[in-house]
Specification:
alpha/beta, Aspartate Aminotransferase, domain 1, Aspartate Aminotransferase, domain 2, 4-stranded antiparallel beta sheet, 10 helices, 13 strands
């Protein structure tokens, strides 16, 4: 602890992002980025925003993109909040809705950024166990709490809840905010956005980093009752009135409008997820049912740690978590068809090497 730190800094265990290698010779399947770049429409919009107007501040209210999103969702601009990636919005939400209250509830295995938010803002938490199949039991999110946070689909499992299950949580918690983090919803799950008009305690957070291929741009959005949006805006304007620059606003606007490219990319990822899952099951991997742009897998013989190391030796990055319950599992992003094929070739080589070693050990 530095003698110059505020006391809270020494208590923080910051979120650890996936490796971002400086060299381009890796097959990068570790951070759930889109395997496909943004469309030409998006790139042209960003290039078009590069002008002398960069000397001016961007619109602090982001009215144009909020209006476009609201129109696309059949809602009002007052239902929409936008920020510098969904992580920033999640951070604002923990501060706006859960500080100084009873413990917030979220699954024991989920996006670890939630833990970091709790530490930063002094939010108390209660982790709800997943069942034996790594599924969320919505009936366990009942009783007194300061709020509820669920990722749908959940991460790193990829398992999604159905909308009636989300409604069960909402009805069980009418007096606190229920935050649904939908970072991966576009790859096969049902969005809770349509429930916003019915529940004034629902806030839905999405990102443009995955399905809209803009992880490097940083843009996220929240959808909820105007009172919740107002709270996020108050926190944002007390932190940074201009979190979205002019280039990000232009790129996000174009990405939202380019529904053809968006749907094409999602369908490609879904198809390759199915291909990858089936192929790995044939190799004796256990693969959880995923509605995300990644799969969560375990092998009955070769440890996740060894697979992680051996894949990296072969130029392929995947993600491993040290949590005791999932230490035998790997999260693997769905890449291009060729990247998925390269992964499968590498895995077969690793498994054959393991089998040969075992045979030699019994000689």
């Amino acid at each position: 602890m530095s003698r110059f730190w505020s006391p809270v800094v020494d208590t923080l265990s910051p979120y650890v992002p996936g490796e971002q290698p400086t060299k381009e010779n890796f097959v990068k399947l570790n951070t759930n980025e889109s395997p496909y770049g943004p469309s030409d429409h998006v790139l042209n919009a960003i290039h078009g925003a590069v002008s002398n107007n960069l000397r001016r501040y961007p619109d602090p209210s982001a009215d144009a993109i909020r209006q476009s999103i609201a129109k696309g969702l059949g809602l009002e601009k007052s239902n929409i909040f936008v920020g510098n990636g969904s992580d920033e919005i999640l951070s604002h939400a923990f501060n706006a809705f859960f500080s100084g209250k009873p413990p917030v509830l979220f699954p024991e295995i989920t996006y670890s950024f939630y833990h970091a938010c709790c530490q930063l803002y002094g939010v108390r938490k209660k982790e709800i166990p997943l069942d034996m199949y790594f599924r969320i039991d919505v009936h366990r999110f009942e009783g007194v709490s300061g709020g509820v946070v669920v990722a749908n689909p959940n991460a790193p499992t990829g398992i999604a809840l159905e909308l009636p299950e989300i409604e069960t949580i909402l009805r069980s918690n009418p007096d606190v905010v229920v935050l649904v983090d939908e970072a991966y919803v576009d790859f096969g799950a049902s969005s809770s956005v349509n429930l916003v008009p019915q529940y004034d305690n629902l806030i839905v957070v999405q990102t443009f980093s995955k399905s809209r291929s803009l992880a490097g741009l940083r843009f996220g959005m929240a959808v909820g009752h105007p009172d919740l949006i107002d709270a996020l805006t108050r926190v944002k304007d007390s932190f940074n009135s201009y979190p979205l620059d002019s280039l990000a606003l232009a790129g996000a606007q174009a990405a939202w409008e380019d529904t053809v490219w968006f749907e094409k990319v999602c369908q490609k990822v879904i198809a390759d997820r199915s291909y990858l899952s089936s192929a790995m099951e044939e190799m004796d991997f256990k693969v959880l049912p995923s509605s995300a742009n990644f799969i969560f897998v375990a092998h009955p013989v070769v440890s996740a740690q060894r697979l992680l190391v051996e894949l990296r030796k072969r130029g392929i990055l995947v993600r491993h978590f040290n949590d005791e319950r999932i230490k035998d599992w790997l999260r693997i992003s769905v890449g291009t068809t060729n990247e998925c094929a390269a992964l499968l070739v590498a895995l077969k080589e690793i498994l054959i090497t393991k089998s040969d070693a075992d045979d030699g050990a019994h000689c």
